[in-house]
Amino acid sequence: MAISKQYLKTRPVCKVTFSVPAEKAVKVAVVGDFNDWSSEKSVLKRLKNGTFKGTFEFPKDKTYEFKYLVDGEFVNEQEADRLQWNEYAGTENSVLEL
């Protein structure tokens, strides 16, 4: 899994690209507090090599909690900026700091 960030000079946003290698998966989405944890708002596109990829714009100077939803199973990003304990879910979430 990987995350890449590209800060725009012309607007106060950061383009974040999420890449998830999941050859056997049918559907992969990024869910988090930025999209009300909705699996429909940020579905990643499957590439020919089996990786799922998507790029989204986020306001910069903020922190976001997120997870990947791979065929209904929550997965943390290994390359996240850090992990944050979530009392409500009883588990850690990946954190994106922009």
Automatic annotation (TrEMBL):
Gene3D superfamilies: Immunoglobulins (2.60.40.10)
Family annotation (InterPro entries): AMPK1_CBM (IPR032640), Ig-like_fold (IPR013783), Ig_E-set (IPR014756)
Source taxon at top rank: Bacteria
Stretches assigned to the AMP-activated protein kinase glycogen-binding domain: 24-82
Protein name (database record): Isoamylase early set domain-containing protein
